[in-house]
Design a protein that fits this description.
With 71 residues, the chain is of the alpha+beta class. The chain contains 1 helix and 3 strands; from the N terminus they run E-E-E-H.
Length: 71
């Protein structure tokens, strides 16, 4: 099992998500929960397609951290 970093951002109509390590792997929905479910499916589908095409699947990052700053 792999764990990819996903960025989820609010939009005017809900949320959008993208995976920096998997270019063009995106999802959008009206709720946060639905967006999470769709991006999970998108990641699985994206990786399956890469494997079918013989492309190398990038390893997920080993460490991701958010840093809080003042200002």
């Amino acid at each position: 099992m792999s764990r990819y970093t996903v960025f989820i951002e609010p939009t005017g109509t809900g949320f959008s998500a993208f995976v920096p390590d998997l270019p063009r792997c995106v999802a959008a929905a009206s709720t946060l929960e639905e967006t999470r479910n769709l991006i999970k499916e998108a990641i699985e589908f994206h990786i399956e397609g890469m494997r079918m095409n013989g492309d190398a699947v990038p390893e997920p990052p080993r460490h991701v951290e958010g840093i809080e700053v003042s200002g």
